Amino acid sequence: MKTFNFELTEDEANLVLQGLQELPAKICNPLSKKIVEQAQSQMTEEGGKVIQHTIEDNLGAHEQLG
Predict the structure, then answer these.
(1) Is the pTM above the cut of 0.70?
(2) 8-state DSSP, 1
């Protein structure tokens, strides 16, 4: 399977996650988790934490709804 690399701002990543939350949890949770893991990895490398908390909050809110 071909993979793609996207560059998104924090706001754009959160918008994608918010859109995914409109789908059933069994469909969107794996992709949401992948986005969060990749963002966390990048933020750890840069020494930041802001996007990690924001994205985790969005994912956590969805898991509560799902």
Answers:
(1) no
(2) -
